[in-house]
Structure formats: C-alpha cells, structure tokens
Amino acid sequence: MLVGVLVPVVLVEGVVRGGVLSTVVAVGLVPVLLLRRSEPLLAVGVAFGACAVASVLVGHDFPDLNAVVYLVLLPFALLRWGSGREAALGAAVMVAQVGLVTLLGMKSASDALAGTVVLVAVMALGAAVRYRSRARAREVDQVKLLLARDLHDTVAHHVSAMAIRAQAGIALAPTDPAAAVAALRVIDEEAALALDEMRALVRVLRAGEQVEMGPGPRVDDLARLAATGHPVVDVEVVGSTADVPAPVGATVFRLAQEAVTNARKHARNATSVQVRVEVTPTTVHLRVTDNGGPAPARPPGLGLTGMIERAALLGGTCTAGPAPERGWVVAADLPRTGAAR
C-alpha cells in the first residue's frame, strides 16, 4: 500500500519539477521500502548508494525531489529491526553518502550538518521504538510464565487429587460401594474446581474481556490442603497471619500446594504429609515433609523450578531434597515484608 501511494506522488512531482533521471531514480527506489523490515541494511545500502551515484551523474545533490523524504524510513527501520552490526554498517553508509556530496561541493556544511541531525534523530526514534517493543515483549513473556505457573500449581493439584481418589474408588468398589461413591463425589468437586480455574485463566487471556478477580489465596487458606485418605495431609500454622502481605500469603499457599501435589504424585508408600508454616516478625517459614520412600532421580520440572522462582521474586529462598532419614522436604523462607531483591 505504501509503495502504491508513493509512486504516483513521486511521478507527479517529477513531471511538475522536471528532471528525468531524478524521477526515474526516485521511483526506482520506492520498492526498496519493501525490504526495510526483512533486510534493513540492504535497503539502506541500495538507497543511499543509488543517491550517491545519482548525485555524481547529475552534478548536484540528490535527491532533489521533496517526495523522496520517504527515505527517512530506512534509517528508522535500520535501528528498529536491524542488528547492532547492521546498524553500525548502515550508519557508515549514510555518513559516507553525506560526506561524499559535501566534499564534492554539492552540499554546504550547514546542510550536511542539518541532514546528519535528521538522520540521527530518526535513528534514535527507531532505537527507542525497538527498546519499547522488546520491553513490552518481556512483559508479555513474564505474564505468560506467571499464568503457566498458576495453571500448573492449581490445576495439577486438582488433577492429582482426582487421580488418587479414582484409584481409591477402584480399589474399594468391590468391597465398599459407599466409599467408592464418596470418592466419585470428591472427583466431581475437584473437577468442577479445576474447570472454574481454567475458565478464569482463559478469560484473563481473552483481550478486552473484564474478569472479576477475587482475592488471591492466603496463608489461612492452607487449611484447604488438609485431607484425609492416603496420604493424610496435616496443616499447622504457627504465629499471626493477619498482617502477612497478600503477595507473601499467595506465594506460601502456592508453594505448599505444589509441594503437596508432588508428594501425592511422587512420594512412594507415603502415609503422611506435614505442612507447617511459622510466621515470625521478619520471616514466613514453610516446611512440607512426607514420610515416603526415596523418589527416583529426575531433573527438576516446571513445578520445582517455578517454586524456586516464585520465592526469589519476593527475595526469599526455596529448596527441595531428600530428608535425612526418609521422605522429601520442601523448605521456603520468605521475608514477611515481601520485598523483592
């Protein structure tokens, strides 16, 4: 579209002002704009190289048509989409073109200085847009990562509980149908919760759709993790949680939730999972232990990596590893203020 608009404009000015060579070169350079995103250095080299050659052929500074102002798009594109090496080479080409016509007396020193200032300003604008675009991309990536963690932490917890209840129901169905029905009810509840949380995440991802966001999980919500069955999950909170900041409370809950989910999935022969939170004036301590057998060695997955990163965002630490005697221990220490490092 841009090329289709510029060609008639250049032709009209060329006819009015005369100058066949200037018009031909100006029209011929318009398609070079198509390369400004994919090959910005090539576009700059062709355009400014052609201008230098045309200046020598016509005996005066080229371009001499006002419509050729479109060439300022090229230095902008060079800094917006080109690499650092391409930007340096492209800048050298443009400086060489300006220096050539100045040395040949086709451009005064003041005009050369003014042209250089314009080029530098346009290139600075391109660099600023590039920086802003990359910063925005980093923000989007961070949001995606946070959503992925929330999806993993919440939905995986419910799915793990569903799987455990399903296994229990299958085992009890022949001898205790009532217990199997109870397991099915728990599966139904967990599935409904998982669906609600997935729908909430989908609504967040839909552009322009408003979502009523409730308060995030808090330390007091850890009681939701307590469960009977196999393994038994016991939760203990020591200290006052009234003034624990929301980000700290949410992080403690997510860390504990992920640790319980991992214990259910990976702790072999575990009969008990202990979740203990101690709130001190300066730090919130979390410790999740199970009495299962040693788990097979495996590289850390998204869950453990996400736990470590969640704690680090608030200036805290999170570690996970085998207990001295048996089982697995997840320990996290978070500053009570929730101040990131």
Q: Can you describe what's shown?
A:
- Residues 252-336 form the Histidine kinase/HSP90-like ATPase domain.
- It is an enzyme of class 2 (transferase).
- The protein has a five-stranded mixed beta sheet.
- It is α+β, with helices and mostly antiparallel strands.
- The model is unreliable at 208-213 (pLDDT under 50).
- Among the domains are: 2-107, no CATH class; 216-341, Histidine kinase-like ATPase, C-terminal domain (Heat Shock Protein 90, 2-Layer Sandwich).
- It is built from nine helices and five strands; from the N terminus they run H-H-H-H-H-H-H-E-H-E-E-H-E-E.
What are the key terms here?
alpha+beta, 5-stranded mixed sheet, 5 strands, single chain, Sensor_HK_TwoCompSys, protein dimerization activity, Heat Shock Protein 90, two-component regulatory system, 9 helices, 341 residues, elongated
Helices and strands, with pairings:
Elements: H1 2-17, H2 20-29, H3 40-58, H4 73-81, H5 84-103, H6 109-172, H7 177-205, E1 232-238, H8 246-266, E2 272-279, E3 283-290, H9 302-313, E4 317-322, E5 328-335
Parallel strand pairs: 1-2
Antiparallel strand pairs: 2-3, 3-5, 4-5
EC number: 2.7.13.3
Transmembrane segments: 15-34, 41-59, 65-81, 88-106, 112-129
Organism: Actinokineospora terrae
